[in-house]
């Protein structure tokens, strides 16, 4: 892990729509997270803006394109770009998703679910080890939302994720919204998920909004965090202890003040958890 880990406070996902305002005003947020692939360039205004922002905030790099669960070989060019960005930005954290997104050299613009099998678990452990060796650091992996299950599943999602963090030598980016979405869509008690996970394995928590369509919850990152997700978040930090917490918002992006308001709510819960723990 880096010498300067993420502070145990609430932060926000930084998107292009808010970049200029954040640079000009330096709003009071604990840290910022950006999508790694948006900065895989040798120069230009976006990278210059990130350089400037990094001087004022802790930054987390969150990847969406490494395709950890694919049977294809790891993309060496992608890893090289990520390593270069890490060396330049010196982020407090680096993360990816527990998914696959390309096959036979073709990239699919989605975070696709994995079968929960021993074979998939072994593949992921090997690939995460290779990625961590290539980057020279521990990464976090995020549990994703999903809208189907595989008939070959040999274990529950929470068992799979818990086993992965135990054997792969990585940390977990625990997305509370994704747990809730999957619990509704696949009809399980989200508290079973919390019970299976070790608090020591969690390096960061994500919160976001969802939409509902024909009885299915869709992880859109386009609304405020739902009350039921706030309740599950409160239970999570009561169980695991306070963790760096991020508000994600990627579609229908509102004014920066809305994200900061959501982060302030998470911060109040973190502080209440500290007070109870003390």
Mind telling me the CATH superfamily name?
Divalent-metal-dependent TIM barrel enzymes
What order do the helices and strands follow? Answer: EHEHEHEEEHEHEHHEEEHEH
Q: Quick one: how many beta strands?
A: 12
User: Any idea what the radius of gyration is?
Assistant: 18 Å
Structural class label: alpha/beta
* DSSP helix fraction: 40-55%
First-to-last CA distance: 26 Å
Shape: globular
Give the tally of structural domains.
1
3D architecture notes:
- Strand 3, helix 3 and strand 4 form a beta-alpha-beta unit.
- The protein has helices at 16-25, 45-54, 76-89, 118-135, 157-167, 176-186, 190-196, 227-240, 256-277; strands at residues 10-13, 31-35, 58-62, 93-97, 100-103, 106-112, 140-142, 171-175, 202-207, 211-213, 216-218, 245-247.
- Helix 1 (16-25) crosses helix 2, helix 5 runs parallel beside helix 7 (190-196) and helix 8 (227-240) packs parallel to helix 9 (256-277).
- The chain has nine helices and twelve strands.
- The protein is of the alpha/beta class.
- The protein is globular.
- It has a single domain, classed as Alpha-Beta Barrel (TIM Barrel).
- 41% of the residues are buried.
- The protein starts with 9 loop residues before the first strand and ends with a helix.
- An eight-stranded parallel β-barrel has the order 1-2-3-4-7-8-9-12. A two-stranded antiparallel ribbon has the order 5-6. Strands 10-11 form a two-stranded antiparallel ribbon.
- Helices cover 42% and strands 19% of the residues.
């Amino acid at each position: 892990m880096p010498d300067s880990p993420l502070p145990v406070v609430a932060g926000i996902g930084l998107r292009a729509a808010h970049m200029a305002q954040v640079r000009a005003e330096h709003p009071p947020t604990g840290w910022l997270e950006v999508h790694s692939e948006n900065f895989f360039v040798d120069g230009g205004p976006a990278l210059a803006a990130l350089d400037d922002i990094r001087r004022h905030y802790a930054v987390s790099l969150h990847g969406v394109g490494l395709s950890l669960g694919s049977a294809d070989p790891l993309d060496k060019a992608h890893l090289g770009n990520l390593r270069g960005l890490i060396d330049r930005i010196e982020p407090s954290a680096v993360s990816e998703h527990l998914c696959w997104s390309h096959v036979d050299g073709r990239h699919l613009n989605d975070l696709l679910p994995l079968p929960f099998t021993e074979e998939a678990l072994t593949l992921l452990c090997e690939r995460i080890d290779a990625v961590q060796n290539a980057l020279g650091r521990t990464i976090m992996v995020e549990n994703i939302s999903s809208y189907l299950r595989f008939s070959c599943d040999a274990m529950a999602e929470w068992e799979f994720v818990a086993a992965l963090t135990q054997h792969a030598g990585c940390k977990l980016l625990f997305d509370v919204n994704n747990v809730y979405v999957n619990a509704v869509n696949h009809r399980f008690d989200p508290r079973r998920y919390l019970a299976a996970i070790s608090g020591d394995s969690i390096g960061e928590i994500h919160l976001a909004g969802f939409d509902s369509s024909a009885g299915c919850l869709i992880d859109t990152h386009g609304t405020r965090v739902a009350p039921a997700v706030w309740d599950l978040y409160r239970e999570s930090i009561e169980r695991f202890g306070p963790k760096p917490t991020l508000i994600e918002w990627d579609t229908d992006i509102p004014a920066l003040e809305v994200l900061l308001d959501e982060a302030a709510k998470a911060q109040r819960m973190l502080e209440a958890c500290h007070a109870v723990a003390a």
